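Give me the 3D structure for Response regulator.
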Amino acid sequence: MIARNPLDIFTESFSLQTLTILLAEDDHDDILVFKEVISDFQITINLHFAKDGLQTLELLHKLQNVDIVFLDINMPLMNGLECLSEIRKQSLPVSVIMLSTSNSDYHVSQSKILGANGYITKPASLNDFRQAIKDVLTTDWTKEQTDFYANI
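Predicted structure for Response regulator (152 residues):
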């Protein structure tokens, strides 16, 4: 019998976990891809959506117990970097992973400077995206020594 990793979200042993995720994304197709990626995980996910940075902040205050925010950079009204800055100014206790089609050094470094926990470039491959999301969801972001995650 093979021992299972208790943090493997593809196995039943992880299914007792529940995560509340806020996906801030204005592109309907990207939302569908994200939903497809997490559908394979043996974990209960309470998934909420925001279409821009302003709605993201509103939902973070309303929901209060969000574990992680996946924050698109290019959104209307308030972009992801502006939203991230506000999240950190307000000391909201949430892990933030930036999502973007851009892998520019500027966006990655600004995300890190502003306090993001990580950065994912939206990959062309569904399997690559699934692995990146799995990596993020199985990381303990509450540990101060946790490194900045970059999947660029």
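The domain at 12-139 is CATH 3.40.50.2300 (Rossmann fold). Let me know if you want a second pass.
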